[in-house]
Amino acid sequence: MEQKSPLQLQICLDIATEAVMSAGAILEDYFGKLDTIEEKGRPGDLVTEADKKAEVEILKILRRHVPEHGILAEESGQIGEKENEFLWAIDPLDGTTNYAHGYPIAAVSVGLLIEGVPQVGAVYNPFRRELFRGAKGLGATCNRRPIKVSQTRELNKSLLVTGFAYDRRETRDNNYAEFCYLTHITQGVRRSGAASLDLTDIAMGRLDGYWERGLSPWDMSAGIVIVEEAGGKVTAYDGSPFVIDSGRILATNGQIHRSLSNALLETPPLGEWKS
Ligand code: IPD
Ligand code: CA
Ligand code: CA
Predict the structure, then answer these.
(1) Among 20, 47, 176, 219, which residue has the most ligand 1 atoms within 8 Å of its CB, making it the best to mutate?
(2) Ligand 1 cavity residues, CB under 6 Å
(3) pLDDT of 57-84, one tens digit each?
(4) Closest Cα to atom 12, ligand 1: which residue?
(5) Alpha-carbon distance 231 to 241, whole Å?
(6) HSE, side-chain direction, 13 A CA sphere, residue 118
(7) Confidence category of residue 2, pLDDT binned at 50, 70, 90
(8) 84 located within any domain
(9) Cα 243 to chain center, whole Å?
(10) What is the CATH number of the domain that holds 236?
């Protein structure tokens, strides 16, 4: 893969920043004032007018700056060729369920994959006014200040986060056993309801490890770059290289990576473990 210059990455990062900030303003405007909340397909998979308006705004900004790039947007799907070297992965509102209930944990996430690898990302949480940015080789920041992952070394001293995909009622691979087991052997497992913020919380050192299955590229592309640039590690559950289309991610501060990976692989079926 041809390495893009720091200047090229910086330009893309600024475009991503403009997009998340403009969309974030829309999310702030609509919060608590929604007229329409629809179910998209699976029960509980919601879409609101805020998701749609925020996505239109992001698409407008990307088309203005980089009309030649491909886009994969949660509400509009694939735009342009999938084979494009540059692919923007957009989640206009990550944490829709929270947002629709008036629970203020949600964000806008805009990431750029270059030849399939996340290299640029911006995540904006309008409720805490936190802007997270990262680009390969350029570091990670929150509100323009450098950020770093935590120093927790032992799994039993760690605070983790996970999530449950919308297909959880249709599959036994629903993460329930892992959630219970890891709750039992660590200081706790949180469930924020916004994958992009789970990743930025790892990057900030607020949480030590995150795992989830059933994710889409728009949920994680931006957050992955931010975690890696903050000194964290992102792989598949078994520690092998991360594959974005698998929907499965293990992201940690690096120090607990192997022990969390082992615990996930060794999780006994629900109810079959002893303290
Ligand atoms: C969801 C959130 C949630 C995760 C789900 C995602 P949405 O995205 O990131 O934390 O557990 O798997 O689909 O629907 O709120 O954009
Ligand atoms: Ca999402
Ligand atoms: Ca979404």
Answers:
(1) 219
(2) 91, 94-97, 163-165, 193-195, 212, 214-215, 219
(3) 999 999 999 999 999 999 888 998 778 8
(4) 165
(5) 16
(6) 32
(7) low
(8) yes
(9) 14
(10) 3.40.190.80
